[in-house]
Amino acid sequence: MPKTKRFDMMLPRRLTMLGGVAIAAGVTSPARAQLTIDMTRPTFEPVPIAIVDFKGDAVGAQMAGVIRNDLQNSGLFRVIPSSAYIQQNVDASTPPRFPDWRSIGAAGLVVGQVTSSGGNIKVDFRLWDVVSSQQATGLSFNSQPSNWRRLAHIIADAIYKRVTGEEGYFDTRIAYVSESGPGNARVKRIAIMDQDGANNRYITDGRTIALTPRFSPTLQEIVYMAYGENNTPPRVYLQNVDSGRRELLGNFPGMSFAPRFSPDGTKVVMSISENGRTNIYEMDVRGRQLRRLTNSPAIDTSPCFSNDGTQIVFNSDRGGTQQLYIMSASGGGERRVSFGEGRYATPVWSPRGDFIAFTKISSGGFGIGVMRADGSGERMLASGFLVEGPTWAPNGRVLGFFRQQPNSGGRVGSVTLHQIDITGRFERQIPTPTDASDPAWSPLIPQ
Amino acid sequence: MNMIKVFAAIAALFVMTACSSNNEQAAAATTTVTPGSVADFRQNVGDRVFFDTDQSNIRDDGRQTLSRQAEWLKKYTNYQITIEGHCDERGTREYNLALGERRANAARQYLIAQGIPAARIKTVSYGKERPDPVGSDEAAWARNRRAVTALQ
Q1: pLDDT tens string B69-85
Q2: What is the pLDDT of residues A425-446, one digit of tens each?
Q3: Which of A10, A19, A260, B82 shows its CA 20 to 30 Å from the CA of A429?
Q4: Interface test with B, best of A190, A209, A235, A255 (most B CBs within 10 A)
Q5: Best of B83, B84, B90, B101 to disrupt the A interface by mutation (most A CBs within 10 Å)?
Q6: Cβ of B93 and A211 within 8 Å?
Q7: B chain contacts of residue A437, beta-carbon cutoff 8 Å
Q8: What is the pLDDT of residues A123-133, one digit of tens each?
Q9: A-chain residues within 8 Å CB-CB of B91?
Q10: Count of structural domains, chain A
Q11: Alpha-carbon gap: B9 to the closest alpha carbon of chain A (Å)
């Protein structure tokens, strides 16, 4: 009988993790490999997994639903429908009848128990390795009942990590540009939602166009670009997500746009236009000192820090067409890294540091691709009439981006958010309440 | 009598809209415009110039339009102007914001060279965010790569 090790850890938002990971003692059996997956391989079969409604409280079924949705949407799991289950009333604390689960082809089984105590809920879950008849992982949490969705995402992340060996990305948010109205008077406002589309809320009111939201590392703030009233040029704003308080980040005569935080959150890089030139600047968030990083007559924009904060990748048309360049985070040492056919844009450095994702524009259309940080090993993942704006999930193994369909008959084409894994094998649309563009995937929500 | 009437066949308007970059001279049938009015500027001068793909240099047809704009603005000095730079949708959002700015600035520099005081001219870029017309073919993209002079 497996035993769950327990530890206590204080978490903000009154969410407390009590459990630990326990893997049964014993040698790894060959069959156990079936509950693992190497997602970097070009071919793999999704892991078949059964997720039983958590017992003890009505919210348990909803939590299981969120976990199923997360795992299925990753493309790495095949969730077995509950109608196929043979064993009913699986107890969350004792081993299941493994042959019953093996016979329906499950490699993993997730069970859970929700207990109410003193206004809080306690949630215990276990992932059973059905093939080797052992517990693969188990966690226990205490939290306010209103946190049930987050708890479900955290559990889905734990399952994902145990099976893939990669960090999960389900307990995250996505900021994006919500679009509505006719094409020539489109309302574009910043919205934030959970990565699965839940808890959508609007950050700007839509009176002026707001674009390019980017999260701070703590998720407490976003930076974005918005036009002023009465035709005044765009400026960069820093806004607290919860309080809604917003500040202008520098008031320059020309347009300022394309903001992005440094990995430590202390700086924001952005572009500032002046007399038709567009250069990249760095602003210290606390002191608001401005420092110029590029000085060219060209368009230098879409800057993004490397994961370690030492370099910045950006796009520039200084050589004639839009291409990717890397420079030192303090400016200087600029070198071109994109050399394929076509124009390259919107480079984003992976949080793991291994890849740079980009938009590529060629005669055939638009594409989303990745290359190594030195520019080698370019691979295209998605293509279409208009695909744009890659953003990394925090594990650096999944990308978000947006797709726009052609306009037709004076009507604007649909604009939708999508995710794709870095093998390019599995793409899915991320549901949004309105048309949506320019996603920015948050880091994992701090626990 | 400072009212004039401008007549043009509606059919002619549509033909010019489809193929010409200074179509704004055309006016709808029986429209009455006051000299010195916004309508006068749009219909008899032309409020916009067009650009080639990924370019911001003023074309010959654009020079003619901007020269007419300069003459008109010298006559009607009560207007301030904002030049709005725009792009087609075949570029990325942030780059297009900068490209629209470059186009607006190119039109601004031309007007300054024609003697319009710099202080009268502001610029703003809308990148690819405000298409006019809304379309996804070459004809629509050609009309979207534009700098529009708005009077205030």
Answers
A1: 999 999 999 999 999 99
A2: 899 999 999 999 999 999 999 9
A3: A260
A4: A255
A5: B101
A6: yes
A7: 93
A8: 999 999 999 99
A9: 322, 343, 345, 361
A10: 2
A11: 23
User: Does A447 reside within a domain?
Assistant: no
The Cα A245–Cα A224 span in angstroms is 13
For A419, the domain range is 173-441
Answer yes or no: do A214 and A81 share one domain. Answer: no
pLDDT in tens, A158-214: 999 999 999 999 999 999 999 999 998 999 999 999 999 999 999 999 999 999 999
What φ, ψ does residue A97 adopt, rounded to 5°?
-80, 95
Q: What is the pLDDT of residue B11?
A: 38
pLDDT (average), residues A340-344? 94
- A261 and A396 part of one domain: yes
Nearest Cβ partner for B97 among A257, A321, A322: A257
pLDDT digits (tens, 9 = 90+) for A298-333: 999 999 999 999 999 999 999 999 999 999 999 999
pLDDT at A269: 98
Residue that wins the pLDDT comparison between A374 and A369: A369
**ipTM metric:** 0.90
Spell out which residues of chain B touch residue A278, defining contact as CB-CB under 8 Å.
Answer: 98, 101-102
| Residues of chain A contacting residue B105, judged by C-beta atoms under 8 Å apart | 275-276
CA-based nearest distance B128→chain A, Å: 10
Chain B positions touching chain A (beta carbons under 8 Å): 54, 56, 82, 84, 89-95, 97-99, 101-102, 105-106, 109, 122-126, 129-136, 140, 150
Residue A7: predicted pLDDT: 28
Residues A63-112 have pLDDT tens digits of: 999 999 999 999 999 999 999 999 988 888 889 999 999 999 999 999 99
When pLDDT is averaged across residues A328-351 and rounded to a whole number, the result is 96
Q: Assess if residue A446 is contained within a domain.
A: no
**Chains A & B: contacts with CB separation below 8 Å:** 111
Same domain (yes/no): A339, A398: yes
| Structural domains in chain B plus CATH codes | 35-151 (3.30.1330.60)
**In chain A, % of residues over pLDDT 70:** 92
Residues A334 and A228 in one domain: yes
Structural domain includes residue A326:
yes
A211 touches chain B (CB under 8 A): yes
Whole-structure pTM value: 0.89
